[in-house]
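Researcher: Re-running this chain for the archive, since the previous output was lost when a drive failed. Same request as before.
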Amino acid sequence: MDGQQIKLSRLLAIQERGIEHNAIALALPPYRKLVRTVTSAIVPHIHNYIEMAQSKRGRPGKNLAALPYIKSIGVEKACALAVSSLINNFARPITYQSMASKIGQAISYEWGILQEDPALVARINKSIHKGSVTSRRYVYLAQYIKKKYDRNIPYIPALARHCIGDLFLSHVLQIKNLLKVQSIKRTKHKRQTLITADPVLIEWIQDELRTDSIENPQHLPHLEPIPTHYATVLKPQRGRHTPESSTTPDSLLVKAAEKLNKVGYRINTQQLQFIRELSMRGDETLSLPGHRQPEMPEYLDGMTAEQIQQVRAAKAKCYADRAMWRAKRTNLLTQLGLLQLYINKEIYFEVEADFRGRLYPTANSLSYQGPDWVRSIWSFSEGKEINAENERWLFIHAANCYGLSRLSYESRVVHMRRLYHQMCALVDDPASQVGFLETAKEPFRFLAAAREIVQYVRHGPGYLSYLPIFIDASSQGIQIYAALLGDRELMEASNVLPIASGDPRDIYQELADTINEEAKVESGSAAAWVRQHPVDRKTAKRIMMLIPYGGKLHSAFKVTQEIPHIPSVASVWLAKRLYDTAADMLNSLVKFQYTAAQEVTRQTRETDKHSYTWCAPSGVQVTQTYKKQKIVRIQTAIKGHLYSYRSDTDKPNYTKLGAAFVPNFTHSIDASLLCHAVVYSDCLSLCTIHDSIGMHAADVDTVQRQLGLSFTWAIDGMRAELMQLGIPINGTKEIRERGTEPPCLTDSNSIPRGPNSYLFS
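Model: Regenerated C-alpha cells:
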C-alpha cells in the first residue's frame, strides 16, 4: 500500500465514524470546502431577503420574524451556522421539520450567547473541551451563567426558530446536486418529507478525499533509484515561484539532486529492535512516549484558593501535554509499523528543493531528517573501509552525539576512548544500560555510533562501515555574514578563521558566560534569580540565532518564558540582556540587516513590485513574494472556528519583503554551498540536512576540505550579487554587472584560502 492509499483509507475511516455518530467531521478539508461553497451560494439570497423586507416591497410573509435575529448575528455567520448544522445531519435521512428545527436551534444558541458578556463567554469557552458537541457547549454555558449570575440565557421564540430554519433550508434546497427531497407515505392520510444527501454530493466528497490524498500525499521511501526530472525538483509553495531556468539539466541544483537521489540506504535492524523493545516497555524512556498519557491532577478537600488556582493551571497544562503525547505516540507506532515494510531492503529517498534551493527528502513519514531515534536507524547501503587514518571520525561523531561537540577534535577522541568499556557494555546489552544512554545528548545516534566503534575495534582495520557521519556548521548564519562582511573578530568567534590556540570557539557559550558574569555584579531580584539559575548554552543559542534570521525582542521573551519556574521580572530582564548583548556581539550583522532591509524596501517601493529576486551562487533565481492579505474568519461562540479564507490584495507588503530578505538570503547561500560540495565531492554516499552533511567516516576529510572551498566560492558569489543588487556592504555601495569577476577572498577584508577546520565540524 502506497502513501496515497494510506492517507485515503484514513480519511474514509474518519468519515465513516462521523456518519455512525450522525456527525460528519467538519475538520476534514472536503467538508470545510463544502460549508464555504454552500454558504457563499446562499449569502446573496439572504441579503436580498433582508433588503426586500426592509424596503417593504412585496410580502416577506411569516419569515419576517427571522429578520432581527439574522441581522444581529451577521448574515455570513448565520449562513455558515445553518450550513454546518445541515452538513452535520444529512448523513442519515432526516425529516424536513427536524432539519429546520436543528438549523433554528443552532442559530438560537449563537444569538443567545452573543447577548451575554463576550469576555465572560470567551473565558468559559476556554474551559470546554474542543471535542464537545454544540448542544453540550451551550448547556455548559447556560448552567454556569445560571449558577453564578442567577440569570438565563435568552432564547429565540419557537415561531422565529421555525421561520429561521425554514428560510435557510428553502434556499439550500434550491442548490442542485446537494440534497435530495423525497416524500414517503407514513399512514393512509399522512405523508412525510425526508431529506438525504444527493448521490452526486456523496460522489463529490469521495473525489475530494481522493484529490486531497493526491495533492497532499503521504510520501514514502522508494525501492529503486529515482530518475531526476529537473522540472519537478522544485517544491511548489504558495506565493513563491522559482523560474524554470534555475532548474535546467545542467544547473548545480539538479546535479546535486540527481546525486542524492542515487544514494541507497538500509535499516539498522539492531537499532530498530532496541527501539521497538523500548516502545513496548510502557514507560517513557529516552524521550519515547510510553503507554500511559499524563495523569490529570485532582481537586482535594480543604484546598486554599491559591492551591485551587495551581490545580487549574496544572489541568490546563495537562490537556496540552496529553495532546502532545497522543501525537508523539501515534507518530511512533505509525513509523515503527512502516519501517517493518523496509527491513532487509535497499531504500532511496527522492529530494526536492524549496524556493531558496534547500534540498529536502520528499518522504514525510520516514526520512533521515526525522528525530533522533529515526535518524539512528538509517545506514548507507554501501560500506567503506575504515583504517587508522580515518578512524578518529568515528570517535568524533560519537562525541558529537554524546554532547561534546564544543571540544577540540583530540579531546573528543580521548574522551570517547575513555568510555570504550562502557560502550562495549552498552552494545552487548543496551536494555541494561539505559541510564548511561540518558547522559547522551542524542542517545539513539550515540548508541549507533558506539555499535560501529566496538565492531571496528573488534574487527580491526579494513572494517566496512555503513554509518553516516554528520558534520555540521558551527553557526551557519553568523559564519556566512561574518565572512560576507569581512568582520575578522566575528569570523574568529564563529570559527571561520583559525585562532592561536587552535581550539574551536563557542560563541553561544560566550554569550551565556557574559550574562552570568553580569548577573553576579548587579542587584535586583531578576539578577539574583539568574545567579541561582545560570543561563545555559541552549537558551543563549536560541536567542542569538534570532538575530541572523530576523527575530525581534518579543521572540526572545517567548524563549525565556519557557524556562521552568522563572519569575516574570527575571524573564523580561534575561530576554533583554541576552538579546542586547547578542546584538552587540553581532554588531556588523545587525547593521547590515537594517541597511539591506531598508534598501530592499526602497527598491520595491520605487518599482512598485510585489517580489524581490536575486541569483544564488548555485544559479537558482530566488524570488520572494509577499502581498498584503485580508484574512476573513467565520468564528462562532458555540461551534468555534467554522472556516476562514484569505483575500489577496494587489498591494505589496514592502515591510515583509525587506525583513525577509536577510533570512532567505542566508538560506540561499547555505543551500548553494551544500549543493556545490555534494556535486564536487568525490564521494558517492552523501546526504544533507539543512546546513549539515553526512558521509562515510573514510570520506570526512575529503568532504571537509571541499566544504571549505565551497564556502569560499559561495561567499565570493554572494558578495558580487549584493553589489549587483546595489545593497551596501560595510557602508559602501558598488554596482557591478553580473558575470564580472568577483572579489578574491585573499583580499584584506575577506577570509584567506583554507578556512578554520572547525568551520564544519
